[in-house]
TrEMBL record:
It comes from the Eukaryota. Residues 1-17 have a biased composition (Polar residues). Keywords: Repeat, TPR repeat. Residues 1-46, 270-293, 905-925, 1373-1394 are annotated as: Disordered. PANTHER family: BNAC02G23120D PROTEIN, N-TERMINAL ACETYLTRANSFERASE-RELATED. Residues 50-138 form the BRCT domain. This is BRCT domain-containing protein. Gene3D superfamilies: 1.25.40.1010, 1.25.40.1040, BRCT domain.
């Protein structure tokens, strides 16, 4: 095709084959690079030589410009004869400045230089003459042109510009004629472009030959058709043989470049004349790039329309669609304008307007493919997908050679996440228009999304070849190579890009982006193992790096990798001085000093050195918590006890709820939990008796005892001593009943103890104490779902959603309640709803994976390269996270249950009577029917969705109403024809992303055994034995497999014989079965784990499976198991036993469902009820299922619709205490005896005139006040509906009602001076906690705010609550008692601590 060559020494030109990769430009001078890209700004002057001397003698400097504008200005000035310098010096004559007050502007101004705006250069270049400079001057100074300009006397012009222009036109015509005469010729629409590019390529070859000091004749020998301009150059070369060769070739090269400019301008002018409209040639060359354009004017839209046809920015994908040939070119002018309107309406999201224009065109031209495609794309944005696909398919059918139709088809598929189909459409579009930038860019995004890395590299390389002056293309090509595991190639690309930059790059507004590119390059060098080169690059580019913290971190790491630990340790110490709480810096310092261990095990010598290191660091960073916490991981015995005491005491005094979570990792060490228990118990005893820590005379505040009890409750919960833990947490609640964390922890303890109903009730009580806390709300929902209270959980969960379809809103917010909800439905036997919830989790993860799509272009544009690569690696391992792992496992178990309990039908009974061949035929027929049914169901659901959303159409035509779920209860999910096929889908995901999980291979065994794929099942058994051969489930799978395969009939087919031979060959490799029968292997397994309950249960189950007559022996073996007591530290409270609640429940279910022995199950239940008295499963005597349980009565009350009640943890005062509280004298005024009457009176008066408020905050205030006072206000709460009560008004009203110092009914009125003084006088305890308060109203609000902030921060001691307690105590002691530095010898001295 096109021009052919006589020799194969040179690669085919880029306009015949795919373009060669761009060569690094770092070896070229900037001027050469500009001349190479001069096609982007061709000249069209009849006096080219005069034009090239317009600015001769001008030495210019640029300031304040960025690429591509900077490159364009420099090219224009150079083409007019000026000389460029990057920085101002004595030879410079002119500064071209973007705006005043740049650093260079001030420098030139102080040196009396001349400064001009960019508009002067642009006008001179456009008008092809020297424009008056006066009106463009920013500062007038020294002459802007050198007076003496040396001339080259050898330069002569043998031909005029007019003659050269005529050559260009003749060469184009003759080249077209030659191409048309060839057997293999280009398409008619492309032949002129190919001819023009061929002429220019041949001329460029001649220039390259002259630059290499070679003869032009070597070029003419390679081409079958040689343009006139190359022939003339050859003649001139021949005539100059007698002259100096070097000088002649330099002159010829300069002459050739000058002629090339004329050729480029003339060929571009020729193309413009044929299009019948003139436009600037620089615009033709540069084209339209949507990545560089934010908004487009009407003129720009027309320009882009004529050049690349269309730019479609899809609302769903924010992408653009462009084409080189004019869209709607075959339409008459009127319809063509209407087509432009469709495009514009689509871009501005005026879909109805676009549809109207499309219909107008289709009335006259019903088969116009591009119009049909655009109409379909518009309908797709209006959620009318069925019509959209039909129209786009019809458009492609009518105009299959239109790359626009294929591009629209790809966008349609992409909007539905059908990425593979979209890629096919893009590739079809590129076959028609291979150099379309927009399609290539869209294709690269999809390739990155689908991780088609080789294709991603290829597409990014093509983009860079087509547009090498765009930074994003260089960076994208480098990133593609990096993702394709070629970091060294990515470094080469970045170095080539840096070679195209100026010395003064980057400007100030691009420093951050340039820093990121440098750091990314360093990370690439590090990844490729070139640590020395990475460090050298880091030091070399230090002045241009603005992120000094990352610089120091990277430098320290590289020094350590290079074996220079002394230098690295100094840097890590500098970093620690900047942030002494960064654990990574301590780890790096330990590595540099040779004191780090991955396993956490240290020798005594290393422990001494580490201890000395952290002692010195703790003296240096006294306020750092990390320097005190890290030594707890390696210290032992007495040193550990001393260090942990120093760490714990300040945090208990301060009241940090997260202290136990911080120390929880220490429970993996053998002796450290005992030491901590002994230490904290001693602290508790000392605080109770002396009010201070052991060995200290400093009195601790009352809250210290509270947080000590709080810590101990969590400690005993962790060790399984639930009765002791509940005793501690109850004591803490009695001490200070207003701390919400106490109820949350008690709820957690009850859950671990097995009473899920009580746990849900306590979580709900904690929620009611602060209704504005979303975290507590989520905890409450989780507890309710665990207790199978799904309806209550859903009502609670939607409290933080907007009005409308609240459950769908929860799903859209990805609140992740689905797993707990699905578990609850699974326990209740509702497999449809359970599957619905588990598959919703998979949908969440798919959405998270889809969310990365928009970042493929954004991160390259914003240069966040390291974060982008990290995000892609995170997405690659997304499905390996535990939450998805659990959801997939549960979904597979649902499908297994569906398979094990199929619904028998008459059709299946008939199938069982058929011959095997007929069965196979019937199965194929049923599969085809199932596919047709599935398609029909999908179509019906889509129709319903469209009908349901018909009423929610906005003015633009976009449907705003969310579609209705066609299967809200999952009924269609359980009607699946082949549950094992569905289970296999999720099993493959688990095998890919969680190959080291025991449960993955256990499920693989279960699925493949049911599918009778024994070799795959055996593979799963081998993986189980490899991961954990002593696990009971591994043992079960091993015995079941060989029992099943051993009991099958003798093999008949070749496949069965092959399977048997494989199993016989593999069996000796299994150590558990070497020279042993299954019975012997089972008995040996028991011998190794005779004291373990779960292992004994596994042995008993397999014993019964191998020999059903030994069922009684197996049951007796389980019942003879002993629950041994775990050894405790001296002085420890309670008894801890080995058996876990979940293991005992599993054994109980085994006796019920596998052994089918109800009497044995009943005996086991009675026995476990003694070990787990709080367990509802075993109906323990202290569980909520007991008739006398407060939770049982509460649950019944809720079911009957009565008021909910959560008495656990409440501190109700007895009659004597209540009277004592009511008789407190405050400023000589006795409190009102009938509080409820005052409350009701106030509410009725206030509610009449109020116009709204915050219900949840008001209720939260009332609960807060109730806890602070110890008075039960529930009768008031359940009588009065406070839907309009505001938080501060309720808090304030409560104070006034208790104190009786002001008229309660006046509080809602506007504040006056008289009313204000009344309010001031009424501000007393409990919420305003100082006797002589100067600003009571503010302190009331502050009290509530501090309470809320303290809970959300989970790290302070609730100062206002403590002041409440202290104030009440002071009032009991008398008016002279002081509030400061109070302490109680015991909790009994406090009215609320009993």
């Amino acid at each position: 095709m096109a021009l052919t060559k006589m020799s194969q020494k040179r690669n085919l030109p880029s306009w015949i084959t795919s373009r060669d990769p761009p060569q690094p430009e770092s070896k070229k001078k900037p001027k050469d690079a500009d001349e190479h890209n001069i096609r982007n700004a061709p000249e069209s002057s009849s006096t080219t030589m005069d034009f090239s001397k317009l600015l001769e003698g001008v030495v210019f400097v640029l300031s304040g410009f960025v690429n591509p504008e900077r490159s364009t200005l420099r090219s224009q000035a150079l083409s007019m004869g000026a000389t460029y310098q990057p920085d101002w010096n004595s030879d410079s004559t002119l500064l071209i400045c973007a705006f005043p007050n740049t650093p260079k502007f001030r420098q030139v101004e102080s040196n009396s230089g001349t400064i001009v705006s960019k508009d002067w250069i642009a006008e001179c270049y456009m008008q092809k003459k020297l424009v008056d400079i006066e009106q463009y001057l920013l500062h007038a100074g020294k002459p802007w042109r050198k007076t003496s300009v040396p001339q080259d006397p050898t330069i002569r012009e043998p031909f005029s510009v007019t003659e050269v222009k005529k050559w260009a036109r003749d060469d184009l015509t003759e080249t077209i004629s030659w191409l048309e005469s060839q057997e293999e010729k280009p398409a008619p629409g492309e032949i002129k472009r190919i001819a023009a590019e061929g002429v220019l390529t041949c001329l460029q070859d001649a220039i390259d030959s002259l630059e290499q000091k070679k003869d032009v004749g070597s070029v003419t020998e390679l081409w079958s058709f040689v343009p006139r301009v190359v022939k003339e150059l050859g003649k001139m070369e021949s005539s100059s043989k007698t002259e100096n060769s070097t000088a002649s070739k330099d002159q010829l090269c300069k002459q050739a470049k000058s002629w090339k400019k004329i050729y480029e301008a003339e060929l571009a002018q020729k193309g413009e004349e044929e299009e019948a409209k003139s436009r600037r040639t620089s615009g033709v060359a540069s084209g339209y790039d949507s990545d560089e354009t934010v908004e487009m004017t009407e003129e720009e839209i027309e320009h882009a329309y004529r050049n690349y046809a269309i730019s479609l920015s899809s609302a769903s994908s924010a992408s653009s669609l462009s084409c080189r040939r004019t869209m709607g070119a075959s339409l008459p002018p009127k319809e063509a304008n209407l087509f432009k309107l469709i495009v514009k309406s689509y871009e501005t999201k005026q879909y109805k307007k676009g549809l109207k224009a499309a219909d107008a065109i289709l009335k006259k031209f019903p088969s116009h493919g591009e119009t049909l495609s655009m109409k379909g794309l518009t309908l797709n944005c209006m959620d009318r997908k069925t019509e959209a696909y039909e129209l786009v398919r019809l458009g492609v059918k009518n105009d299959i050679k239109s790359h626009v139709c294929w591009h629209v088809y790809g966008l349609l598929y992409r909007s539905d996440r059908e990425y593979r189909e979209a890629i096919k459409c893009y590739r079809n579009a590129l076959r028609i228009d291979p150099d379309n930038l927009e399609i290539l860019r869209d294709l690269s995004l999809l390739q990155a999304q689908m991780r088609d890395l080789s294709g991603f590299v290829e597409t990014r390389q093509q983009l860079l070849t087509l547009k090498p002056n765009h930074r994003m293309n260089w960076i994208g090509f480098a990133v593609s190579q990096h993702l394709n595991a070629n970091a060294s190639k990515a470094v080469e690309i970045l170095e080539a890009f840096e070679g195209t930059l100026e010395d003064d790059y980057p400007p100030e507004n691009e420093l951050c982006e340039h820093t990121e590119m440098i750091m990314y390059k360093v990370s690439l060098l590090e990844e490729s193992g070139a640590f020395g080169k990475a460090l050298e690059e880091l030091h070399k580019k230090e002045p241009k790096i603005v992120d000094k913290l990352s610089y120091k971190e990277q430098e320290a790491y590289l020094l350590w990798k290079l074996g220079r630990p002394a230098e690295a340790s100094k840097l890590y110490r500098v970093l620690l001085s900047m942030n002494p709480d960064n654990y990574r810096y301590y780890e790096g310092l330990q590595k540099c000093l040779g004191l780090y261990s991955e396993s956490g095990q240290y020798s005594s010598d290393r422990i001494e050195k580490l201890n000395a290191l952290y002692q010195s660091l703790s003296e240096q960073y006294t306020r750092s918590s990390a320097v005190k916490r890290i030594p707890l991981d390696f210290l032992q015995d007495e040193r550990f006890k001393e260090a942990v005491a120093k760490y714990i005491k300040p945090l208990l005094t301060k009241g940090v709820p997260s202290l136990f979570s911080d120390l929880c990792s220490l429970y993996d060490h053998p002796r450290k939990p005992d030491i901590m228990e002994q230490l904290v118990v001693e602290m508790e005893h000392s605080i109770r008796t002396t009010g201070s820590y052991p060995g200290s005379d400093v009195k601790e505040p009352p809250s210290t005892l509270l947080w000590t009890l709080f810590f101990l409750a969590q400690h005993y919960d962790k060790r399984g001593q639930y009765d002791v833990a509940l005793g501690k947490i109850d004591e803490a609640i009695a001490h200070t009943p207003t701390v919400i964390d106490l109820y949350s922890v008690k709820s957690r303890i009850m859950k671990h103890a097995g009473d899920l109903t009580a746990a849900a009730a306590l979580a709900d009580e904690a929620r009611c104490m602060d209704l504005a806390d979303r975290y507590i709300n989520s905890e409450c929902v989780k507890r309710m779902l665990q207790a199978d209270q799904v309806t209550s959980a859903e009502k609670t969960a939607v409290l933080f959603t907007k009005e409308g379809d609240q459950l769908n809103s929860l799903h859209d917010m990805q609140c992740m309640y689905d797993l707990a909800s699905g578990d609850s439905y699974f326990r209740q036997g509702d497999l449809g709803r359970a599957l619905k919830r588990f598959l919703a989790v998979e949908k969440h993860y798919s959405d998270i994976s889809e969310d990365q799509f928009d970042f493929h272009s954004y991160c390259l544009r914003k240069m966040t390269l390291r974060s982008y690569v990290g995000m892609l690696k995170f997405e690659d391992r997304l499905h390996s996270f535990p939450y998805f792992h659990k959801a997939a496992i549960r979904a597979i178990r649902c499908y297994l249950k569906l398979h094990d309990t199929p619904k028998s039908t008459a059709e299946e009974d008939e199938m069982s009577k058929l011959a095997p061949a007929q069965k196979k035929k019937m199965k194929k027929q049923k599969k085809a029917e199932a596919r047709a049914k599935k398609a029909r169901i999908f179509s019906e659901a889509e129709t319903k969705i469209e009908e349901s959303t018909a009423c929610g159409v906005s003015k633009s035509g976009k449907r705003n109403v969310k579609p209705v779920d066609p299967d809200p209860h999952g009924e269609k999910l359980i009607q699946v024809e082949d549950p094992m096929a569905e289970a296999s889908k999720y099993l493959r995901l688990l095998q890919k992303h969680s190959p080291n999980s025991l449960e993955t291979h256990l499920l693989s065994f279960e699925v493949n055994m049911r599918k009778e794929k024994f070799l795959l099942a055996f593979q799963a058994v081998k993986q189980l034995l490899k991961l954990d051969a002593e696990n009971p489930d591994s043992h079960r799978s091993l015995v079941k497999f060989f029992l099943k395969t051993g009991s099958t009939s003798s093999p008949t087919t070749e496949a069965e014989k092959l399977r048997c031979s494989v199993l016989e060959a593999e069996r000796p490799s299994i150590s558990q079965l070497q020279n042993k029968s299954l019975v012997e292997a089972n008995k040996e397994f028991l011998g190794r784990h005779e004291d373990s309950l779960v292992h004994r249960a596994a042995y008993a189950e397999m014993l019964c499976l191998l020999d059903p007559s030994k069922k009684t022996e197996a049951i007796k073996l389980i019942e003879d198991s002993t629950n041994k007591v775990v050894q405790q530290t001296n002085g420890a409270l309670g008894v801890a036993r080995e058996w876990k609640l979940k293991d005992c429940i599993a054994v109980h279910k085994l006796l019920e469902t596998v052994f089918l022995d109800s009497e044995a199950a009943s005996r086991w239940k009675s026995r476990c009820a003694e070990y787990f008295p709080f367990s509802t499963h075993f109906e323990g005597k202290r569980s909520s299922v007991m008739p006398d349980s407060v939770y049982n009565s509460s649950l019944k009350s809720n079911e009957n619709g009565d008021t909910p009640n959560h008495p656990m943890g409440q501190t109700e005062l007895n009659d004597g205490q209540l009277e004592a509280f009511k008789s407190l004298t405050m400023f000589g005024v006795v409190t009102t005896p009938n509080v409820y009457t005052v409350f009701l009176k106030f509410y009725e008066e206030w509610h009449r005139e109020s116009k709204g408020g915050r219900t949840s905050a008001a209720f939260s205030d009332l609960i807060f006040a109730e806890r602070a006072s110890g008075i039960d206000f529930k009768p008031f709460v359940y009588t009065v509906h406070m839907k309009d009560m505001q938080a501060w008004q309720l808090s304030y009203f409560f104070v006034v009602s208790i104190s009786g110092q002001a008229d309660a009914t006046a509080l809602h009125k506007p504040t006056t001076s008289e009313n204000s003084s009344a309010l001031m006088a009424s501000a007393v305890a409990p919420l305003v906690c100082e006797k002589f308060s100067r600003n009571p109203r503010t302190e009331i609000k502050q009290g509530k705010q501090q309470h809320m902030a303290a809970h959300s921060m989970k790290g302070i001691a609730y100062p206002m609550q403590l002041k409440v307690r202290n104030a009440i105590h002071n009032l009991q002691q008398g008016p002279n008692h002081q509030t400061e530095n109070m302490s109680f010898s015991s909790s009994n001295s406090h009215p609320l601590g009993q």
